[in-house]
Fold this sequence. Notes:
Elements: E1 2-4, H1 10-20, E2 25-30, E3 35-38, H2 43-52, E4 60-65, E5 77-78, H3 99-112
Amino acid sequence: MKIISEKISLPELREMAAGMFGNLVKAVVDIERNIMAVDGELHADEEKMLLEDGSRQENLWGINVYPEMDRSGPDFVEFDSMINLRPRQKNLTRGIDNPDVREKILVIIGELIS
């Protein structure tokens, strides 16, 4: 697992995917700090790493990245994680219900993945 604050390449993500799940890389994005943790077995592990690094839980959202998919297509990022279940933030699903949060995540992913 590592925290990404500078660009990471698609080949690096593909290597991570091959080493863990085959076709995806789990990631947790901090929408306040514009960083993400990647390459964990569980989103909760990546969330813990970011919390220990100074992130605030309400800013952390779990996603899956499919590095073999077209970056501009809808299948590159999947908004699905147990850590996203947050009734107090009015997020009642494993997805990310707020379209503004989804868009912010897509912007951050676009900046961090080259």
